[in-house]
Write a structure and sequence with these properties.
The chain is α/β, with parallel strands linked by helices. The chain is about 40% helix and about 15% strand. The chain is built from 13 helices and 13 strands. The strands form three sheets. Strands 2-9-8-7-6-3-4-5 form an eight-stranded mixed beta sheet, sandwiched between helices. Strands 10-11-13 form a three-stranded antiparallel beta sheet, with no helix packed on it. The radius of gyration is 21 Å and the shape is globular.
Length: about 400
């Protein structure tokens, strides 16, 4: 089809957006990557940890089911049994949940888009952390939100800076987006004191909170935290979760956990007939069998070990050159170069056989910073992580 004709019929919003290529994620182009390159790119689980045997048992369960429950349209809210299992998984002595508080979505990205589509009009104000997940920034821009930001330090979002924005900004802030546990990209977690402050501010200034908890189950060394949703008595927190990090990205099963009344409003904006009941049934069986809990415990230990291997490989880099906070979970190590350009380091490392995203894509457009890189340690082998540290050390010496 003629490109001129295409450009004449697509929406202005589509013209504004990019197509989600490697460069949008801060990575080198595919043409720059060679087969031997070690890539510490996205938040992807180790494929050797996919529980094929346990998942296949779930498929056997579906095949032998007495009717066509799993072969119909899924519907906008998703398979009831899986929603009930998620409610049990979230419930504790302090907080109880039910299946009606959950909407099953196309991964956590689909959950975030559905929330934004339901709540945000063009030019509505969203506050994000700086840095934050670049994929969510792209979604917010796609729905033409006005994005404001507050910095992140070793204790998570700077709540004092958030309150200054709430007091001084002329327009109402409708939504705050946070990654409170094992932040992407920085790896930090919101402190207990700041969690309380954030919830208090949401009551005082009447805004909603999206807590993007994609990595919340992948804590190391029995690290404990109180979920924001358990501290919220007003229904202001929408927790977003996914099985993409604990099981496999190809499942595309995420969810929203929210107030039942708000869930009904959000569902009014869903038009796709839902996700696959077959996959929902497989995962529900996986959880009910008790194997999912065992699987999560297993991967926590393995990813913790991988982080330690990567950190050990960076020991040769002088503290005068880099700074980082060791994460208590998740998939990422966020490196700050004190006196160097991240893009220059990225280019040199690529020539030496190592690819990773530069940090500028994780900041809102008006806060460009060229001194950070993100290293994903989840997918690669320990040997590759050791070699990655060696290559990065060598690349710094070549600056």
């Amino acid at each position: 089809m003629d490109l001129k004709f295409i450009n004449s019929i697509i929406s202005n919003n589509t013209i504004r957006m990019t197509s989600g290529t490697n460069t949008d994620w801060g990575m080198p182009t595919k043409n720059q990557l060679v087969r031997e390159t070690i890539t510490l790119g996205g938040g992807i689980p180790d494929p050797s940890l996919i529980p094929y045997t346990e998942l296949s048992k779930g498929f056997d369960y579906i095949k032998n089911y007495t009717d066509d429950t799993f072969f119909r349209y899924g519907g906008p809210v998703g398979y009831e049994i899986l929603r009930q299992e998620l409610a049990k998984h979230y419930s504790s002595s302090a907080s109880m949940y039910n299946g009606n508080q959950f909407i099953l979505t196309n991964g956590s990205a689909g959950a975030i888009e559905l929330i934004i589509k339901s709540i945000i009009d063009p030019d509505d104000v969203i506050v994000v952390e700086s840095p934050t997940f670049s994929g969510s920034l792209r979604t917010f821009r796609g729905y033409q939100a006005k994005i404001l930001s507050v910095p992140v330090d070793e204790f998570g979002m700077d709540i004092d800076q958030l309150e200054k924005l709430l007091i001084n900004h002329k327009r109402k802030i409708k939504l705050v987006y946070t990654i409170s546990n094992f932040h992407n990209p920085s790896g930090v977690s919101l402190s207990m004191e700041r969690r309380k402050q954030l919830i208090d501010l949401s009551k005082k200034y009447q805004f909603l909170i999206i807590d993007d908890d994609a990595y919340g189950e992948i804590g190391f060394n029995n690290y404990k935290y109180v979920p924001l949703r358990d501290m919220d008595s007003q229904g202001h927190v929408l927790t977003v979760g996914t099985f993409s990090k604990t099981i496999a990205t190809g499942l595309r099963i995420g969810w929203i956990c929210t107030d039942e009344n708000l869930a009904k409003k959000i569902l009014a904006n869903r038009f796709d007939m839902g996700n696959s009941p077959i996959l929902h049934g497989i995962i529900a069986h996986f959880i009910q069998s008790g194997e999912y809990a065992k699987h999560v415990k297993k991967i926590q230990g393995i990813y913790s070990r991988k982080l330690d291997v990567l950190l050990d490989s960076l020991n040769d880099i002088n503290d005068n050159h880099i700074k980082y906070f060791k994460p208590n979970g998740g998939f990422f190590l966020w490196l700050h170069f004190k006196n160097a350009s991240a893009k220059k380091i990225q280019n040199i490392a690529l020539k030496n056989g190592l690819a990773f995203p530069h940090g500028s894509v994780f900041f809102p457009e008006d806060e460009y910073k060229d001194s950070y890189i993100r290293l994903a340690f989840s997918k690669n082998s320990e040997d590759e992580l050791i070699r990655s540290g060696d290559i990065l050390s060598k690349s710094l010496l070549e600056l």
